[in-house]
Structure formats: structure tokens, C-alpha cells
């Protein structure tokens, strides 16, 4: 851009650094959330846990997450992303490290609840930061990159956490992975000072960075809020179902043991990451080519829904690699769809309320995830097999697109 102002050039360069920080915060968020599942056998052996003890800790974590998401969205909108993100990462990192000095079920439960509450800041803060720093034509790709972070975490965290536990002990694994968040926090605070001049020049949406009051009544009366909430309820069922039951599916269907699950799951989540990038990239290219926002968003969502539709074929796969391919393509479709739900939210709402709307949507998505977890357990205990859940997931994305279209027939960007 030969005529770009120094502030515009600085903003263009700095926004990608900020995006990188958001990406790594999301990856750290996933790592701190999942490490307890990876270390479960060691914790059971060392602390004498039963499966019910472990299940109780996880249930309380999920319940705390569901109850905190709307509050997290309000918090980020109220104090702004710079301070909100800093507080969130600082508190959840401290809670993650607290696992390393816990000895009783009560200690672990308390640490998990604090972790859950603080970690809910990540999703509204990540989306709000991306909205503030990226213009509409680049926002889809940026959100696709951020949305890929959990997928990459699902590949690399299983390699890191067990290695640390074997070399240094499980307590050190919690302390080290939790401490990474404080390194991120130091960089975030330094970058915040560097961004002051860019914000003052009008290259960043200050309303998102600083904070404002949340108009809850008007948001709950807005049809577009319900479009986001309903779509998240329907589509997050698929994500949470495969996240918690995918390994069990491979074990039941193909007899894979613990040491054999890594490669097929890496393929599944590697493809999911590709779907996140692709969903953002394709939408950005369509918008750059002059396609209107309504057609670009819903067109990519339709493509994602069609990728999920064949997921029941995994049940008839002749080998686990073919099943992993089917599940990976389905999760790629999920991530493409999810990226454009977030981008749709940023399209139609002003930046000052993005956190609250994302919080509402994430709450609905968590409730959808809890619903399918309960249904899956009941179905499997009663001999139903995996077909009912796969059928629900296959249909959910087309239903979510229809839901969005009914509540938001035409996507019109906010001023």
C-alpha cells in the first residue's frame, strides 16, 4: 500500500502479531483443559481415584463452564479485551498450576472450577480481539486461524503432557503447562503498550478494546442473537460428541488400544484444522471477489454441512483409517461452519457487544454438548450403538443453517 499512513502500516503488521497471541492463548486454553484427561491413569494410580471420582470432577468442570459463559461475555465487553484477556489467562494459568499441588478430590475440584470459570473468557475475548483488529475483508481468515488452535492442541498436547509426566512427574506436568500462560501474559501486556498509538490513530476498534456496558435486553430481543445461539446448540453437539466419544468409538469398532489411538485421532484433528483454515479462507476470497456477505457466509456454511452429512458411513468403514478419514472430513465441515458462525456474529453486531453475544452462543453450545453426552451414555448402556448419535450429528448442520436463515434471512453487516 504505497499511500498507507505509518499508523496503517503499523496496524497491518501488528494485527498479525496480535492474532498469533490469540491463537496461542486458545491453544494454551485447550492444553490446560485437556491435560487432566491425558494424566487420568497416573492420577488414579497415585491418588486412588475411582472412575466416579474422576467423572464427578469433570461434570463439575462442565457445569461451571456452562454457568460462566454468559458472565464471561459480559466481563470482556465491560472491561475490554486487553484487561479481560489478561485477567482470564492469568487466573486460569494459576488454577492450572494449582492442580500440581493438589492432593484431595476437593482440591482438584476447586482448581477445576476456577479453571473453568476463567477459561470461558477465551472465546469471547478471542472473537472480540479479532473483530477489533481485522477489517471485514480479512476477518474470516483470521477467525479461521484462531478456530484451528484447539485442533492443533488435540494433536500436540497428547505428545507433550505424557512426556513431561514420565520425565518429571505428573505434578511437574501441571506446573509447567500452567506456567506457559504467564509467559503469554507477559508478551500480551508488552504488546498492549505497543498498540496504544495504533488505537489512537483509529486503526483499531477502540470500542472493542476498551469496554462498554452490555445492553442485555436488546440483545435477547434481537433475532440475530437467537440465530447464533440456536446454531451453536445444534452444531456444538457434534464437536463435543466426537471429542469425548471418538476414542471410545475407535476402541469399540476396531479394538484399538490406548497406544494405538494417537495416529487416527491425529488425522481426525489435522483434517479439522484444515477445515477451519479453509472455512475462513474461502469466505474471505468470496467477499474479496464481491460476493455479498449473506451468500458468502451461508454458502460456506452449506459446504460445511454437506461435509458432515456422510458421517454415519464411519460405522461401515472396513478399517480405522477410513473411519478416521470420514470423521476428519466431518470435523473439517464442523470447523468451517463454526468459523463462519463467529464471523457472522462479527458481521452483524457492533464490536462493543460481541463478547456478550458469543457468550450467549457458547452457553447454548455447551448445553447442546451436555445433552448429547447424556443421550450417548443412555443409548450405549441400553444397547443402541453409535448410529443414533451419528444420525443426529449428520442432520444437525443442515438444521442449523435452516435455523440461521429463518432468524436472519438476510445478513446485513453492522455499521
Work out the number of β strands: 0
Q: By helix and strand content, what is the structural category?
A: mainly alpha
How many helices does DSSP assign?
A: 18
Global morphology: globular
Second rung of CATH, namely the architecture of the largest domain: Up-down Bundle
SSE sequence, one letter per element: HHHHHHHHHHHHHHHHHH
Distance between the termini: 25 Å
Mean pLDDT: 85
Total domains:
2
> Could you list the spans in which at least 5 consecutive residues all have pLDDT below 50?
none
CATH-level-4 superfamily name of the largest domain: MFS general substrate transporter like domains
Largest sheet: none
Radius of gyration: 21 Å
Helical amount among residues, as a percent range? over 70%
Strand content: under 5%
Q: How is the CATH topology of the largest domain named?
A: Growth Hormone, Chain: A
Top-tier CATH class of the largest domain: Mainly Alpha
How does the SSE layout of this entry go?
Blueprint: H1 6-38, H2 40-47, H3 51-79, H4 81-98, H5 105-119, H6 122-133, H7 136-147, H8 149-168, H9 170-194, H10 196-200, H11 206-210, H12 216-220, H13 223-254, H14 262-288, H15 293-308, H16 320-348, H17 354-381, H18 387-407
Helix pairs in contact: 1-4, 1-6, 1-7, 1-8, 1-9, 3-4, 3-5, 3-17, 4-5, 4-6, 4-9, 6-7, 6-17, 7-14, 7-16, 8-9, 8-14, 13-16, 13-17, 13-18, 14-15, 14-16, 15-16, 15-18
Main location: membrane
Keywords: Membrane, Transmembrane, Transmembrane helix
Pfam families: MFS_1 (PF07690)
Amino acid at each position: 500500500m504505497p499511500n498507507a499512513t505509518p499508523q496503517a502500516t503499523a496496524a497491518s503488521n501488528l494485527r498479525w502479531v496480535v492474532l498469533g497471541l490469540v491463537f496461542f492463548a486458545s491453544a494454551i486454553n485447550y492444553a490446560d483443559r485437556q491435560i487432566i484427561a491425558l494424566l487420568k491413569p497416573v492420577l488414579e494410580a497415585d491418588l486412588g481415584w475411582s472412575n466416579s471420582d474422576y467423572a464427578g470432577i469433570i461434570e463439575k468442570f462442565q457445569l461451571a463452564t456452562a454457568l460462566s459463559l454468559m458472565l464471561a461475555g459480559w466481563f470482556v465487553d465491560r472491561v475490554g479485551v486487553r484487561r479481560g484477556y489478561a485477567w482470564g489467562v492469568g487466573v486460569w494459568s494459576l488454577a492450572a498450576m494449582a492442580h500440581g499441588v493438589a492432593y484431595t478430590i476437593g482440591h482438584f475440584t476447586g482448581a477445576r472450577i476456577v479453571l473453568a470459570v476463567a477459561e470461558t473468557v477465551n472465546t469471547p475475548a478471542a472473537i472480540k480481539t479479532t473483530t477489533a483488529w481485522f477489517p471485514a475483508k480479512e476477518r474470516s481468515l483470521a477467525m479461521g486461524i484462531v478456530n484451528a488452535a484447539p485442533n492443533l492442541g488435540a494433536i500436540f498436547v497428547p505428545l507433550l503432557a505424557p512426556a513431561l509426566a514420565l520425565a518429571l512427574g505428573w505434578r511437574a506436568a501441571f506446573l509447567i503447562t500452567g506456567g506457559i500462560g504467564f509467559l503469554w501474559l507477559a508478551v500480551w501486556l508488552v504488546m498492549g503498550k505497543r498498540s496504544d498509538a495504533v488505537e489512537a490513530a483509529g486503526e483499531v476498534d477502540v470500542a472493542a478494546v476498551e469496554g462498554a456496558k452490555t445492553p442485555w435486553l436488546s440483545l435477547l430481543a434481537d433475532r440475530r442473537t437467537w440465530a447464533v445461539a440456536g446454531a451453536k446448540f445444534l452444531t456444538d453437539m457434534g464437536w463435543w460428541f466426537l471429542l469425548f466419544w471418538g476414542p471410545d468409538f475407535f476402541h469399540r469398532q476396531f479394538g484399538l488400544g490406548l497406544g494405538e489411538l494417537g495416529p487416527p485421532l491425529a488425522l481426525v484433528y489435522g483434517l479439522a484444522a484444515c477445515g477451519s483454515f479453509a472455512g475462513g479462507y474461502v469466505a474471505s476470497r468470496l467477499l474479496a471477489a464481491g460476493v455479498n456477505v449473506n451468500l458468502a457466509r451461508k454458502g460456506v456454511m452449506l459446504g460445511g454441512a454437506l461435509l458432515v452429512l456422510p458421517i454415519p458411513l464411519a460405522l461401515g468403514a472396513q478399517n480405522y483409517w477410513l473411519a478416521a478419514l470420514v470423521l476428519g472430513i466431518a470435523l473439517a465441515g464442523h470447523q468451517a461452519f463454526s468459523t463462519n458462525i463467529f464471523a457472522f456474529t462479527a458481521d452483524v453486531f457492533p464490536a462493543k457487544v460481541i463478547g456478550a453475544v458469543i457468550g450467549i452462543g457458547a452457553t447454548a453450545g455447551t448445553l447442546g454438548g451436555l445433552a448429547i453426552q447424556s443421550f450417548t451414555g443412555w443409548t450405549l448402556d441400553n444397547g443402541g450403538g453409535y448410529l443414533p448419535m451419528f444420525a443426529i450429528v449428520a442432520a444437525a448442520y443442515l438444521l442449523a443453517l435452516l435455523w440461521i436463515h429463518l432468524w436472519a434471512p438476510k445478513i446485513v453487516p453492522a455499521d
